[in-house]
């Protein structure tokens, strides 16, 4: 538990993929690679007709990438690899030939907003506010940017990116299209997501696969694009400005 986990269970045609890390579900590279692999495996498993992606715990859905790992980066290659973590998850969700439903039970930051955006249908509770905080530590939401912009549009993406220290409410996220449905409680959300997942599990797999492909038209270059974006942050994290910003953040934490 102290190192976190990623696990998958398949029930009645529904693949439930759960991730967890004790630091507000902030994800180190090892867990991100596991998460991408589990999504890819569920996409290939005939027993799974639909995928539900969720995090464990009752607080943050995902606080982004591991800050401890971020501050240890000393060279461009390591930085690019680090920032490629969420690229792998987003691309796995994008390419899975099945609908991915996301269950957002708490706040989402940075890469967590990217996961919520990359899902095909996202459920959230009313307390699930969002923030892209990357600029506040001297980098930018380069990797998650394409997924977020695709879901909420350029204007809302720019708003999140520029106003990097401010939370936007779950109502705002629903209005912009990030969240499909909001619920007052986790229990109500789980009932809603299970009802949809069960209906989808009984739907025509071929039709859903065709729809998924159509829905993601125009993103075929993301395998390379997101890695190129990761290199941007990988370069910035080595700069004196960003190092100082990170150290200030550490002192506040």
Draw up the topology in text.
Layout: E1 5-11, E2 14-20, H1 29-44, E3 50-55, H2 67-70, H3 76-83, H4 85-95, E4 100-104, E5 108-109, H5 111-118, E6 121-125, E7 130-131, H6 145-152, H7 154-162, H8 170-176, E8 181-183, H9 186-201, H10 205-215, H11 222-236, H12 240-252
Parallel strand pairs: 2-3, 3-4, 4-6, 5-7, 6-8
Antiparallel strand pairs: 1-2
Helix pairs in contact: 1-4, 3-11, 4-5, 5-6, 6-7
What would you note in describing this structure?
It is a single chain. The protein is α/β, with parallel strands linked by helices and 253 residues long. It has one domain (5-186): 2-enoyl-CoA Hydratase, Chain A, domain 1, CATH 3.90.226.10. The protein is built from 12 helices and 8 strands. The protein has helices spanning 29-44, 67-70, 76-83, 85-95, 111-118, 145-152, 154-162, 170-176, 186-201, 205-215, 222-236, 240-252; strands spanning 5-11, 14-20, 50-55, 100-104, 108-109, 121-125, 130-131, 181-183. The strands form 2 sheets. Strands 1-2-3-4-6-8 form a 6-stranded mixed β-sheet, with helices on both faces. Strands 5-7 form a two-stranded parallel ribbon. Helix 4 (85-95) runs parallel beside helix 5 (111-118), helix 5 crosses helix 6 (145-152) and helix 6 (145-152) packs across helix 7. The protein is globular and about 55 Å long. The two termini are 22 Å apart. The mean pLDDT is 95.
